[in-house]
Amino acid sequence: MPVFKVPFNGYSVKFSPFYESQLAVATAQNFGILGNGRLHVLQLSPSPANPGQPISEISSFDTADGVYDCCWSESHDSLIVAAVADGSVKLYDLSLPPTANPIRSLQEHTREVHSVDYNVVRKDSFLSSSWDDTVKLWTVDRPSSVRTFKEHAYCVYSTAWNPRHADVFASASGDCTARIWDVREPASTMILPAHEFEILSCDWNKYDDCVIATASVDKSIKVWDVRSFRVPVAVLNGHGYAVRKVKFSPHRGSVIASCSYDMTVCLWDYMVEDALIGRYDHHTEFTVGVDMSVLVEGLLASTGWDELVYVWQHGMDPRAP
Amino acid sequence: MAMRELVSGGAACATSGSSSSSNPLGSLANALLGSSSKTQERLREIPTSTAIPSDGSASVGTGEPLSGLPGSELDHPLQPNAQGSEFLRGFRSADQHGLADVWDDIQRPQVNFPPEHMLRQPDTNGPPQRVLSSFLHSFVNSSHGGIPFCPATLPVLGLSAGDKQCIRDRSSIMARHFFADKSEDFINAQVNALLSSLEIDNDIRAPGPAFKRYKELEKYWHETHGMRPGPNPADGWVAEFAQHPVGHGDPSTWVQSFEQEHGANGWASEFEHEHAQLASMDHIRGATMPHLAAMEQTRMLANTLAQNNDPKFQNSKFFQFVSKMSRGEITVEDNQIKPATLSAPGDWATEYQQQYSGGQTWADQFVHEELSKGPNGWVDEFASERGHVDDGWVNEFSKLHVNDWAEEFGRQVGEGTFGDSSADNWASAYDEYLNEQTALKQQSESSRGVYVFSDLNPYVGHPNPLKEGQELFRKGLLSEAVLALEAEVLKNPDNAEGWRLLGIAHAENDDDQQAIAAMMRAQEVDPTNLEVLLALGVSHTNELEQAAALKYLYSWLSHHPKYGTVVPPNQPDSLYYGDVATYFSDAARMSPDDADVHIVLGVLYNLSREYDKAIESFQTALKLKPRDYSLWNKLGATQANSVQSADAILAYQQALDLKPNYVRAWANMGISYANQGMYEESIRYYVRALAMNPKADNAWQYLRISLSCASRNDMLEACDSRNLDFLQKEFPL
């Protein structure tokens, strides 16, 4: 299956919601500790003309600091939002020449921006979360943030919009809590002390808008029902190191993909007893980015600090030629 | 440390292990522009496109009306007169005009959204990446087995204070993810090992006991939160923190006040001042921060102690403080001048100076704060930094003169020959020392890059060191020339020519730190010297300090007798790349036969990474000045940056034919060979360069990298111990 080498350490990979063959990859030099960054847009080209290169690069954009995350616009197929370690959120338009990009650079966060997430319901707004402990809400038409959510006491590592409700999102923070927010409310609507250790990622179940998964430095993934949050619905153990990202399948309500500092990508079904349904150890360094295609069921992509991007079908060996 | 790039050919520019890096923008532009028609076509399809897989989430919602989000900070909904609605209308009218046009429209309000590349270059090099990269790699790898991290000794990397800040903050945060199983002590030890071997002052070391308290507080904090699942944590310090993000009388953190300023400025003015702000952001992240933070820290501690009537508040403050400390946001910075890493204090000083003269609001605020803070740490620190010099001087003086003088005096008085000459000698010797001392002081007070003189200088006392220096320089004995010229500027600190030549000698000797420091001094003495201004412009281009580079290049033009008329009489507050490039293009049209103008144009195009144009400019200049070896070197460096390392080698060869002792060109040759993967070759060139100037620290780093890449680990020890004889025998050229 396709593999692509990027010059820097991979940080995040996202399938385009518009084209099944496009994906964006956020990368940072020196593990994001120091140096530049680059946002790649890749094309899975099955064209027989170039069989040796299953993935080709459509475009790439350089930044002065590492790119920690990226997300595609849900409203326009060429718009990508990037989370940059210098505290900026940058918007790129693939249809414009590189000299015109980024079309926006939103500089409000005072520290590294660690994640961005595009609103799938309203399709006009997105969130950024940062090591400055805040989450900011932006709309594409405004030059400054619409709102700043400042409650977390430590780095906010990720946010995820609720798949059904345009105003609801969850945030995961190093202060060991996940929080649920309604952008219309002045404060967070729920504080979920989900783990004993830092929480690095969270995501909503795409089929049940009350179910959320959190991934933590404690190596576990926990699935919660926000209506009864005292006990987790499921605890998924199996990763050997901190779990870096967690992502619900867009196709099956109970399937979760995760990636970890143990260099693996795991697939889980939290409804069944032996929850671990797939384990891929194709990366040779920390695996920090994973995504599941909305358009092709079972298509997975991952990236890691080994500077490789893999795209494969669930059940196949990512490294198979 | 970007300074290698232009002058020295930019190996540092190559990103680790990749072949596609050196000129990403150039090739990218080609790739994209080449296929632009296709892109356009695809774009026009989109608004009506049904080709998109029908997955529900894939609809292109361009016409969706937007209402203001309730609860927004700007509590009025989006009005059509809002500036952003242009953008939206553009979206809605997409069907009629085609999206490409719409996006062009969006581009139109350039004042608001200038393309970012005008403002800040994505600097593809930064610090010497390969060295650093492998080093960080071993740090990260140490987490795999939980092995204590034993760093190898590193060459001097010349990391800027901002880089150090980044490394410190990010590695502290990330280490807590990797080492989840390990104790806090272990994590701190790992991070400390990393930081101290990079010579980064580590604040985590300092608050040992504080960290324990932090853990307690953390526990306390979790408990309170565990009991408070409700939606209203308004009584907690968290809320307090959230509700008063810019606390007024509060010792609001410095970062917050910056944020406040940002907010207050509004979007439009923010972009007008983007230059300045980006610069100041850099400075914030850079060197000034630790000092401000250090002051902040003491202030907060004092505050905490003063308000012990409310334990909760006190705790929260303290927690905030310690948690920030653990993230390196607050630093116990004790930046001592270390001879090996002059960059840190030097840069800081320079940056501070630039900030100050830039007259930016926050700088004023800082100064104001600093003044109001009274016994500012800065001055103390300065004093302590200079302390050893004073001591040295006192000792030396007392040793050399006072005793001698006393004896002499006694003897002479005894002999009755007390009189003019001896007293004069003493007085003049004393004066000389005083002058020297004042010169040193002025120099550091001027806060420019600090020039470091050699310890033992046989040319001190030479009757005409300038002439000697010029002669040595002409002969290509650069290290000797440096000594002679140092003697000259010690004797005549106001000799601009001496400083200038010294700067050039250092640059050709591949020692940029010193070159810049010397050029700064030359410019101080003679602010309108065109050659100095050009050299400074080049240096700052290498540093990717665009604003500074533009300033000097602009000054070059405005002070030039021929082109002074091209530029507006009053220098604008902020220079834009486009304007300056236009002025120079005008100048080039005025007199197409002036090689200097083409050289500056070449430098400018390097600044904007238009390497093809830069190469063209340098080639034009070379037609006019074919025997300018530094020009050949510039051409080579630009070609190397533009991934034409093979051509670059030819250019460097030209430079070396003209000036066989041109250390920089030798080193650059090595870099170009290394870029082509010919490591064995590159080693020979590095060794050659080092044989001529063993002080070229960067060349030592490059040599080390090439040795590892060529699997010559057996020679690493010789490299680390700087055993040149051995290396020369092993790698003859």
Query: Into which percentage range does the β-strand content of chain B fall?
Result: under 5%
- The name of the CATH topology of the domain at 446-526 in chain B is Serine Threonine Protein Phosphatase 5, Tetratricopeptide repeat
Could you tell me the radius of gyration of chain B in angstroms?
A: 30 Å
Spell out the helices and strands of chain A N to C: EEEEEEEEEEEEEEEEEEEEEEEEEEEE
The description of the largest β-sheet of chain B is: none
Q: How much beta of chain A, percentage-wise?
A: over 45%
Q: Could you name the CATH homologous superfamily of the domain at 446-526 in chain B? A: Tetratricopeptide repeat domain
Query: Per CATH, which architecture of the largest domain in chain A?
Result: 7 Propeller
Task: Please report the two chains with the greatest interface, counting residues with C-beta closer than 8 angstroms to the partner's C-beta.
Answer: A-B, 103 and 109 residues
Coarse structural class of chain A: mainly beta
Oligomer: heterodimer
Biggest sheet character of chain A: 4 strands, antiparallel
- CATH class descriptor of the domain at 446-526 in chain B: Mainly Alpha
Number of β-strand runs of chain B:
0
Verbal overview:
The complex is a heterodimer of chains A (321) and B (733). Chain A is mainly beta and 321 residues long. Chain A folds into 2 domains: 1-109 and 287-321, YVTN repeat-like/Quinoprotein amine dehydrogenase (Methylamine Dehydrogenase, Chain H); 151-281, YVTN repeat-like/Quinoprotein amine dehydrogenase (Methylamine Dehydrogenase, Chain H), CATH 2.130.10.10. Chain A contains no helices and 28 strands. Chain A has a 4-stranded antiparallel sheet, with no helix packed on it. In chain A, strands 2-3-4-5 form a 4-stranded antiparallel sheet, with no helix packed on it. Chain B is mainly alpha-helical and 733 residues long. Among the domains of chain B are: 128-198, no CATH class; 297-328, no CATH class; 446-526, Alpha Horseshoe (Serine Threonine Protein Phosphatase 5, Tetratricopeptide repeat), CATH 1.25.40.10. Helices cover 65% and strands 0% of the residues of chain B. Chain B contains 35 helices and no strands. In chain B, helix 8 packs across helix 13, helix 20 runs antiparallel to helix 21 (478-491) and helix 26 (577-590) runs antiparallel to helix 27. The longest helix of chain B is centred in the middle third of the chain and has 39 residues, at 377-415. Chain B is globular and about 70 Å long. Chain B starts with a helix and ends with a helix. At the A-B interface, strand 5, strand 9 and strand 17 of A face helix 2, helix 3, helix 4, helix 6 and helix 7 of B. Chain A: One of its GO terms (molecular function) is peroxisome matrix targeting signal-2 binding. Chain A: One of its GO terms (biological process) is protein import into peroxisome matrix. Chain A: Its main location: cytoplasm.
